[in-house]
Amino acid sequence: GQNIDQPTEMTATEGAIVQINCTYQTSGFNGLFWYQQHAGEAPTFLSYNVLDGLEEKGRFSSFLSRSKGYSYLLLKELQMKDSASYLCAVRDPRDNDMRFGAGTRLTVKP
Amino acid sequence: DVKVTQSSRYLVKRTGEKVFLECVQDMDHENMFWYRQDPGLGLRLIYFSYDVKMKEKGDIPEGYSVSREKKERFSLILESASTNQTSMYLCASRSNSNQPQHFGDGTRLSIL
C-alpha cells in the first residue's frame, strides 16, 4: 500500500526558517516531488529528489533519505507569500504515477 | 511554459446529471491525469491516460469515466452526478516519468 504522511499545519515567522517533513511507506519508489499550492490555485512544482541528499534551489531546499523513507522541504528567509500548502508526492514505478500526501498548510506571520 | 487548461473554474450541477470536465494541454504530453482534492485527504487519482485512447483506473474511479480521443485533450465524465462528488477537480499532464506533472487551475464542482 501507499502511505505518505506530513504535518497538517505549521506556523512560522517572516524571515525565519521552516522545515516541513514527509515520511513515506510505498510499494516502490521512483522519486519524490514537492509542490506548492496557494489557496484556490493549482499546485506548482518546487523540487524533485531521486537520490539521497540535499537539492538546493534558492530559498528552497529538499532533502531525501531513501533508507529512512523520509524527506523534508526547507524554506529559508520566509516571506508572507510563502503562506501556502506544501504537497509531498512519491512516484510509484509500477504505474509511474504519483501518490500525494494530504499537504501541509504553512502560515507565515509578520 | 506548459499550459494545462480546464474548461471551467466553477461549476454547479444537479444530482443525476451527466457532467463533463474538459482538460487540454499544449505541450504534446503523453500522460494526462485527473485528480480530486478534498480537505484532509489530499489529491486522489481518479483516472490517468498514457496515450490516445488508453486509460487506466486510479485509486478512486468509481462513478467516473474518461475519454482520450486526442492527445491534447482528456475528459472526465460523471455519468450520474451525486452529492459526494462535490469537490475540486484537478487535471495534470507530463511527458516522461522523470518530469514533474503540470496542473491546471482546477474546477470547483458543486453537486446539488
Outline the fold blueprint.
The complex is a heterodimer of chains A (110) and B (112).
Chain A lengths: L2 E3 L3 E5 L4 E8 L6 E6 L6 E6 L3 E5 L2 E6 L4 E6 L8 E9 L4 E4 L3 E6 L1
Parallel strand pairs in A: 2-11
Antiparallel strand pairs in A: 1-3, 3-8, 4-5, 4-9, 6-7, 7-8, 9-10, 9-11
Chain B lengths: L3 E3 L3 E4 L5 E7 L5 E8 L3 E8 L6 E2 L6 E7 L2 E6 L8 E8 L7 E2 L3 E5 L1
Parallel strand pairs in B: 2-11
Antiparallel strand pairs in B: 1-3, 3-8, 4-5, 4-9, 5-6, 7-8, 9-10, 9-11
Beta-strand content bin of chain B: over 45%
Rg of chain B (C-alpha, Å) = 13 Å
- Inertia-based shape of chain B: globular
* Uncertain spans of chain A: none
What kind of oligomer do you see?
Answer: heterodimer
Let me know the average pLDDT of chain B: 93
Helical content of chain A stands at under 10%
- How can the largest sheet of chain B be summarized? 7 strands, mixed
Q: Segments of chain B where pLDDT lies below 50 for 5+ residues?
A: none
Residue share in helix of chain B: under 10%
Instruction: Output mean pLDDT of chain A.
Output: 92
Number of discrete helical segments of chain B: 0
Please trace the helix and strand order of chain B, writing H or E for each element. Answer: EEEEEEEEEEE
Biggest interface, and residues per chain? Answer: A-B, 25 and 24 residues
Percent strand of chain A equals over 45%
